[in-house]
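> forwarded from #structure-qc
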């Protein structure tokens, strides 16, 4: 019986994620009850190693999927939108060793800008209000942004270095954030070079830099993966960020959320 190499690779990755150790031909044959010989499995191993999606650490060891293979595997499997229960999400984050951040989607639109006695500007959003010191140029600038969502205005404020505006909007964004499984980010604090990334993840700023889908290094440390998804909680649109090692059981994580 002939196997498609991509299907065969998926089976190897699934088994590797299950046992977290190199996969040998006999192990794969027995665990998956494959109707092919161990020699044939080794031939598949060799072909997949030549393609750079499997690697053999030692001459006598089994094979493990490369980072390239794991990245491709997760890109093809993770849903782009789903509904979640936050209580189940909190439990699953701890159980599967991943960090999860949930942020309410915007819908927080700048509706008007009011000047108060040439001392303050009040930004009226559909869900919040922001108070700034009055500056004529800032008033003119903000009036041009009426109708935009808070996240978009925050990006513009960052680009034009409107620091007071950015900090006030950033604080509003942080109010609408919940996170779970914080211990999964502990490895980032072990290296000084990742301290800034740690706080970007913690306060949700990373969501302003990445798009829906998967992302890897160089945004994250080598061997880590990030997933940005649109989700719904109590019929309310939100964004969910999941961070963890490439070898985490993300399929089990999502199955637990759907249970």
């Amino acid at each position: 019986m002939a196997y498609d190499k991509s299907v065969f690779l998926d089976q190897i990755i699934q088994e590797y994620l299950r046992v977290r150790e190199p996969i040998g031909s006999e192990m794969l044959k027995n665990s998956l009850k494959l109707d092919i010989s161990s020699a044939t499995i080794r031939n598949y191993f060799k072909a997949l190693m030549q393609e750079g999606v499997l690697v053999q650490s030692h001459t006598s060891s089994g094979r493990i999927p490369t980072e390239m293979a794991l990245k491709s595997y997760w890109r093809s499997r993770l849903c782009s939108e789903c509904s979640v229960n936050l209580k189940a999400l909190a439990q699953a984050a701890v159980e599967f060793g991943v960090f999860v951040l949930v942020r309410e989607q915007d819908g927080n639109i700048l509706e008007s800008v009011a000047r108060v006695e040439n001392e303050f500007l009040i930004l009226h959003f559909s869900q919040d209000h922001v108070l700034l010191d009055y500056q004529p140029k800032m008033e003119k600038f903000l009036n041009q942004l009426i109708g935009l969502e808070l996240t978009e205005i925050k990006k513009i404020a960052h680009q034009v270095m409107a620091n007071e505006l950015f900090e006030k909007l950033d604080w509003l964004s942080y109010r609408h954030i919940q996170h779970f499984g914080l211990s999964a980010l502990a490895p980032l604090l072990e290296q000084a070079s990742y301290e800034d990334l740690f706080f970007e993840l913690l306060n949700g700023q990373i969501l302003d830099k990445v798009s829906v889908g998967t992302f890897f290094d160089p945004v994250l440390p080598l061997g880590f993966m990030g997933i940005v998804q649109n989700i719904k909680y109590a019929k309310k649109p939100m964004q969910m960020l999941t961070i963890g090692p490439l070898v985490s059981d993300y399929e089990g994580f999502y199955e637990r959320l759907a249970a």
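QC bot note: The CA atoms of residues 155 and 208 lie 7 Å apart. The first helix runs from residue 5 to 19.
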